[in-house]
Amino acid sequence: MNSLRLLVSCVLISRCWSTEEPTFPPWFKFGVATAAYQVEGAWNVSDKGEGDWDRLFHVHPELKGHPNGDVACDSYHLWRRDIEMLEELGVDMYRFSISWPRLLPTGFPNHISQDGKNYYNNLIDGLVEKGIEPLITLYHFDMPQSLQDLGGWANPLIVNWFEDYARVVYTLFADRVKIFVTVNEPFIICELGYSKGHVPYHQDQDVGRFLCNKNTLLAHAKAWRLYDEEFRPLYHGKVSLSNLFIWFEPATPADKELTELALEHWEGRYGHPIYSKEGGWPLKIQKFLNDKAMKEGYPYPRMIPFTPEEIELVRGTYDFYGLNHYTTFLARRARPGEKIGRWPLYGSEELGMVMEGDPSWTTGEVDWFTMHPEGVRRQLHWLNDTYGVKEIIITENGYIKVDKQLNDWSRLKYTKDYLEQILLAINDGINVTGYTHWSLMDNFEWMVGYNVNFGLYSVDFKDPNRTRTPRESARYYSKVTRSRSVNHRHIGLNYV
Ligand SMILES: *[C@@H]1O[C@H](CO)[C@@H](O)[C@H](O)[C@H]1NC(C)=O
Ligand SMILES: *[C@@H]1O[C@H](CO)[C@@H](O)[C@H](O)[C@H]1NC(C)=O
Ligand SMILES: *[C@@H]1O[C@H](CO)[C@@H](O)[C@H](O)[C@H]1NC(C)=O
Ligand SMILES: *[C@@H]1O[C@H](CO)[C@@H](O)[C@H](O)[C@H]1NC(C)=O
């Protein structure tokens, strides 16, 4: 809508100016999110251990010359400026991750880095001093290389190693940090990691991917139970994991069953064992994939079975649903011989599924992004109806751009439209209690390096000082956090 039309409609419909516009409830927390490897830099300071991303970009011959996170936003040195930005934004909460190899250089708790510990203590104390609640992610994609050399997420012992690491983090920080995410997006770790789209940069769709699927869930469960038994009585905090959950809708009524399979493929394999009443793998996708493995001559089921004890270990290990939502797709059965496009990497090929936006939706600036804000509201209802979760925190939601302009109108609009739908869901009775926008600032976007951005603040990666500058979306978000309303009257008509 252009400004003039909006002005006219506002004059005609006086509710645009009414004081009774819907606002977020007082207990709803606004925040922003980042992750260690994407912002910290300082990859080799002090006694920090080598991480798997360090190794990938420094050593892998195929990736020679690929940009890396050696310096990134240099938040290791510039964290005071980061806190200043959080204050400018007026957020209640900051989600950041701990670098496992920075805190535990060997990967094990035999040696805790004093400098690593100081860095996170300074950041946490700085946030608390400003009244900003820290939310810690324990694992946001960076594994100590020492543990990756032993198989990483494919080695069942990772479950114990992760629990040991979690104990260190809780012991050091749980007195001041009340919300923890154990594992961020196990879907990406396993689905992309075992198709060379992420670390460990290994191609193994048949076995490695499913070892990872199971072990990430067991590791999460152990870390949740550790908190529940030993730390919750002292600190009364909350622990869950964050799932990437692209929302699907059937392209035609005939695609309804396929859509359910897609939801189980994307979300169920990483959510059902934890959030469902009965626990264990979701049955449709389990059967589908196990049949496939059998046809291919494997003597083992593709979805590695849980023992009854493991089902109970994992079931119910959550205090909220951590939702990373970016976009929605229509699911459609591929026509005979039709190419799946860029999505086979995420398993659509094995489902015989084409994922595409509806022609009426606004497309984003990259091909995996459509704007369909109503999708998040339906998805929030699905989470309530399917699992009966009592609390949801949206741990990521944000807009990818290719150009670096400060006038990022499309990101502003995306943020407004999605928050509006989240507020509608809250008013429907879905208990969404917080939102950490991805991302505070432009950062290192994994395999696409610095070629795209998600930042409310732009970062000048050519400047040794990594100067940060607020975009229009940052100005907008700072109005939202203070007014607790998404309405554009707070930002003037220029941006609508
Ligand atoms: C750390 O890595 C940088 C490259 O990112 C290099 O220039 C520097 O010499 C290294 N420092 C140490 C102490 O190894
Ligand atoms: C929403 O979640 C909060 C935090 O867990 C809880 O205190 C509150 O009772 C929940 N509200 C409803 C309606 O379930
Ligand atoms: C959430 O799910 C419960 C149980 O399935 C249902 O009774 C309730 O109406 C749902 N809430 C909303 C807002 O749909
Ligand atoms: C970088 O920061 C230093 C110290 O604050 C300052 O002296 C210098 O001018 C800055 N450089 C640039 C390019 O902004």
From TrEMBL:
<protein>
    <recommendedName>
        <fullName>Myrosinase 1-like</fullName>
    </recommendedName>
</protein>
<dbReference type="InterPro" id="IPR017853">
    <property type="entry name" value="GH"/>
</dbReference>
<comment type="similarity">
    <text>Belongs to the glycosyl hydrolase 1 family.</text>
</comment>
<feature type="signal peptide">
    <location>
        <begin position="1"/>
        <end position="18"/>
    </location>
</feature>
<dbReference type="InterPro" id="IPR001360">
    <property type="entry name" value="Glyco_hydro_1"/>
</dbReference>
<keyword id="KW-0732">Signal</keyword>
<keyword id="KW-0325">Glycoprotein</keyword>
<keyword id="KW-0326">Glycosidase</keyword>
<dbReference type="InterPro" id="IPR033132">
    <property type="entry name" value="GH_1_N_CS"/>
</dbReference>
<dbReference type="GO" id="GO:0008422">
    <property type="term" value="F:beta-glucosidase activity"/>
</dbReference>
<dbReference type="GO" id="GO:0005975">
    <property type="term" value="P:carbohydrate metabolic process"/>
</dbReference>
<keyword id="KW-0378">Hydrolase</keyword>
<dbReference type="Pfam" id="PF00232">
    <property type="entry name" value="Glyco_hydro_1"/>
</dbReference>
<comment type="subunit">
    <text>Homodimer.</text>
</comment>
